Amino acid sequence: MRVAVVTESFLPRVNGVTNSVCRVLEHLERRGHEALIIAPGPGPEQYAGHRVACVPGIGLPGYSSFVLGLPTKAVERRLRAFEPDVVHLASPVALGAAGAHAARKLGVPSVAVWQTDIAGFARRYGFRGTDRAIWAWLRHVHRLADRTLVPSSASHRQLEEHGFPRLAMWRRGVDSERFHPGHRSEPLRAALAPNGEVMVGYVGRLAGDKRVEMLTSLADVPGVKLVIVGEGPAEQRLRTLLPQALFLGFLDGRRLSQAYACLDVFVHTGADETYCQAVQEAMASGVPVVAPASGGPLDLVEPERTGLLFAPDSRAELRAAVARLVQDADLRARWGAAGRAAVEHRTWNAVNDQLLDHYQEVCRARVQFGGAAIPIAGPRPGAAAGPGAAAA
Questions:
Q1: Which helix (H) or strand (E) is 76 found in, with range?
Q2: Residue range 2-173+348-391, CATH number
Q3: β-pairing, 246-249 with 167-169?
Q4: Strands 46-47 and 50-55
Q5: What is the pLDDT averaged over residues 119-130?
Q6: Which GO-annotated molecular functions does the record name (predicted)?
Q7: Domain at 181-343, CATH homologous superfamily
Q8: Beta strand extents in 299-368 (DSSP E only)
């Protein structure tokens, strides 16, 4: 199969969209498929043996590390030359919209992947009154696709309410060997918390849309060492607000695995997460989770079993949830083990085989109907869809 992946974000920029696209490309290579990546530049020439075609991009004002790909005619030219069997649209907005229009023009089926709540993102950055226009544009883009894949039941409900057609579930996998309690390092813990404090940590982008300023409610919880992993435009302000916290910067590889496993409690603050891979990685690392009762974490965190959920805007509930876990080591151990058991079977191989099933289904439907663009029904939210469904 020849798969063209049109993505709004790719290496060297690291975020949820990039990470999931990389896992898909690696899986395509393992299964013997050929891919072309169309992404904002600058970037690598290839990844996992697949060619990368970069298009011009511009940094967003106030967030230059986020590069928006320009929807030029080069997208259609690249797709026409590659002759894909299917087009994968990763979090389509601008570049992805060009990919969706080009796929429709060329008669190639496309699968759009919902990964970012753009309307929520805009609200967090002060763009009030834009919701209606944003949702209208995104609905237009996704209507061009043969199927839209959503990562959580909350996202499914949200898109259904906004009139998005042909929705199906496709969750995210986790590397349960890379993220494992066995990476816990007592020497590292002793270095980070020399007085034996309970380590409470956040891992992710330090940005306004992640609402990281809510971490300030944990600044003076007794017996806690607050550890923050990541970088972003809100970092300097957060350092000022939390002078006693440990800022470890951007981590990857073994250093990230150890950082997760060394935590006693994982905290997430973002309320607009379509899935929240960081929560799943913390659970795989055997760490109990405190997260907002909103979006993706609703599917991931089982209250009173793998962690706690708090009202998204309540700093008091966030603080109380963390304080409860800080005071009870046995509870942390039980919930951490339960979290690990809940996600360790969700391998990337399983969920990406399910993605291949979605590709094949939209391709078969196009053949059956003579290449015409037709409505293609997706499975019900939570329903089985292919061999990877049980693991998703």
A1: helix 74-82
A2: 3.40.50.2000
A3: unpaired
A4: antiparallel
A5: 73
A6: hexosyltransferase activity
A7: Glycogen Phosphorylase B; (3.40.50.2000)
A8: 307-310
Task: Say whether pLDDT at 213 is over 60.
Answer: yes
d(CA 156, CA 161): 9
Query: Using N-to-C axis directions, what is the helix angle for 329-343 and 277-284, rounded to 10°?
Result: 110
The secondary structure of 164-180 as a DSSP string is --SEEE------TTTS-
Share of the chain residues as helix, strand and coil, in percent rounded to the nearest 5: 40, 20, 40
Q: Contact, 297 vs 276, CB < 8 A?
A: yes
Residues 113/170, Cβ–Cβ less than 8 Å: yes
In sign, the C-alpha dihedral spanning 308, 351, 262, 227 is negative
CB 224 within 8 A of CB 218: yes
Q: Are 290 and 321 in contact (CB under 8 A)?
A: yes
Residue 208 DSSP code: G
User: pLDDT by residue (tens digit) across 98-117?
Assistant: 999 999 999 999 999 999 88
In this prediction, residue 340 carries a pLDDT of 98
**Rounded Cα–Cα distance for residues 114 and 100 (Å):** 13
Q: Which residues are bridge partners to 202 per DSSP?
A: 228
Rounded to 5 degrees, what are φ and ψ at 123? -60, -40
Non-local (6+) Cβ contacts of 73 within 8 A are none
CA distances from 159 to 109, 189, 359, 378 (A): 21, 42, 21, 13
Say if CB 125 and CB 209 are below 8 A apart. yes
Q: How confident is the model at residue 389 (pLDDT cuts 50, 70, 90)?
A: very low
Token pair in block for residue 193: 């918390």
Beta-bridge mates of residue 167: 148
Extents of the domains making up the chain: 2-173+348-391, 181-343
Q: Give the length of the chain.
A: 392
Q: Where are the beta strands (DSSP E) in 252-346?
A: 265-267, 289-292, 307-310
* Structure confidence at residue 131 (pLDDT): 87
pLDDT in tens, 372-383: 555 444 443 333
By three-state DSSP, how is residue 247 classified? strand
Alpha-carbon gap, residue 89 to 274, rounded angstroms: 16
CB-CB contact of 20 with 172 (8 Å): yes
